[in-house]
Design a protein that fits this description.
The structure is a single chain. The protein is mainly α. It has two domains: 53 residues, Up-down Bundle (Glutathione S-transferase Yfyf (Class Pi), Chain A, domain 2), CATH 1.20.1050.10; 37 residues, no CATH class. Helices cover 74% and strands 0% of the residues. It is built from five helices and no strands. Helix 1 packs antiparallel against helix 2. 4% of the residues are buried.
Length: 95
């Protein structure tokens, strides 16, 4: 929500008024640039306190997504098998 509710729209408006609008309207440029800066300061403070913007890795839907296409139990239990599987997969991706 942070990105779609603030950063994207504010930076879009800042760029439109600063780069593309035919006439320079300094109050509009200042407003959107200052709001973009403020949002980046919020982001910087949050990431200074935490590795994540939100605790999404605890959500069941996110956990299922990380395990796509599916969880292979034998690889979870066997480190050597997991490494061999990863090497084979890398080889196929590099072809």
């Amino acid at each position: 929500m942070f990105q779609i509710g603030g950063v994207g729209p504010m930076m879009g408006q800042a760029n439109v008024f600063f780069r593309y609008f035919p006439e320079k309207i300094q109050p509009a440029i200042d407003r959107y640039q200052n709001e973009s800066r403020r949002l980046f300061e919020v982001l910087d403070r949050r990431l200074g306190d935490s590795e994540w913007l939100a605790a999404i890795k605890a959500r069941p839907a996110c956990q299922r997504g990380v395990e796509v296409p599916f969880r292979i139990e034998s690889l979870v239990r066997d480190e050597k098998a997991a490494q061999e599987f990863a090497e084979k997969a890398r080889g196929q991706l590099q072809r």
